[in-house]
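Ticket #4471: structure export looks truncated?
Reporter: QA, pipeline team
Priority: medium

Steps to reproduce: submit the single chain below to the structure queue and open the exported record.
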Amino acid sequence: MDAEPGEFLTMLTAEEVEDLRSAGRLRRWDRGTTIMTEGDTSDWVLVLLDGRVKCSSHTSSGTEVVLAVRGPGALLGELSAIDGSPRSTTVTALEPISGIVVRDFISFLESHGRIAVLLMRLISGKLRDSDRKRIEYGAFDTTGRVATRLLELADRYGEKTNSGVRVALPLSQDELAGWTGASREAVSKALRTLRDRGLIETGRRRVVIHDLEGLRKRAR
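Actual output as written to the record:
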């Protein structure tokens, strides 16, 4: 699987990628494996090469909130590695994944000043995305938030077919609910509404978007 546009790995030169590989080691995990745990402290980061993960947190009542879905090329765990604070999210493999584990990431950045600057830009982008999602939670209803998340998945992982854009959905309905800040029942109702309007078709862990523009309008 190729690195996603805009992800950390795509920002590096071929020489920098080789330096990164030399500084780390390749690891693989099975689907469902917890890669990083919220509250742990560690100085290592993971650069995804294949597969997708979810980044999540749990509320005081135990409800899982999915914060992001990340794919090939993504850098994970950088905040804790930089400031020494506990991990702010749990990272779980949605598929079999592989990646480069780099320990003592600070030392790597100290010897690669350009990458340190790129990382600042990357973190800034993540903060802006987080702000945008908070605005969505207050401004959109559940159907609008579900439509927005489906559009995001289609943009990043969609495959054009004769019937529309097919997305191999890496999330269960419970996880999709956690990503939209809604209950599972509300997400099921939202998906049914989008199906009834002919905008999407759903199957086991997949969605086909028949009308992208219509879905965009509903998301807005």
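Status: closed, not a bug. The export was complete when the record was re-opened. Leaving a note from the reviewer for reference: The two ends are 31 Å apart (CA to CA).
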